[in-house]
Amino acid sequence: MSIPFHTRFFSPRWLLAALLMLCIGLPASAADTPGEAAAAAEAPAVQAPASGTAASAPSVPVPAHAAPAPEDKRSLDARVQDLKKQAKALNRDLFILEEELLFPSNTQLAVFLSIDVGSYFRLDAVQLKIDDKVVANHLYTQRELDALERGGVQRLWLGNVKSGEHELIATFTGPGPNNRDYRRATTVKFKKGAAAKFMELKIVDVTSKLQPEFVVREWE
Fold first, then answer.
1. Residue 187 domain-assigned?
2. pTM value?
3. Average pLDDT over residues 98-104
């Protein structure tokens, strides 16, 4: 028995498949059989990007701490400065403690030097003796002389001496009046007690005598 023409090509199943393909945007000729039409209807639709629009690139995560904030940098600088101040204070305290241990007050003797000179003497070197024993020799640079002329005080020697009577001899060398070599020694006797003792060697110009004067005095 032959199948009528309109029944073979316009069956309900074929018509339903054609409608499904039209709904998903496929031409009716994409499937020749109802099974292919049903498979195409079940497949997910893929939408192509619009023309002229580039596909967006995947985002790359950025580390949260890639660069420190300016506040963090300032905070770090402040901590570094604080540590430097603490290190300086600690170094000063250690220096004082070392001097107290090496030179206790009952035996400590410190000798300082200062100058107040003009045109009558320029200090080149000084030698210091305590009880006829050389304890210090110093040659001066121009930079040191400039500092002394601006009012600086040099600690020439720090050491230990026993309690009792002692003799200090300081010898100064340098160009004197008329730029001639000048060598002058000054002597002083002092008594060392139980407390630390501080003495100063001072070089001054005496205008009335047109020559330098070397003075030794004790600090109270």
1. yes
2. 0.58
3. 77
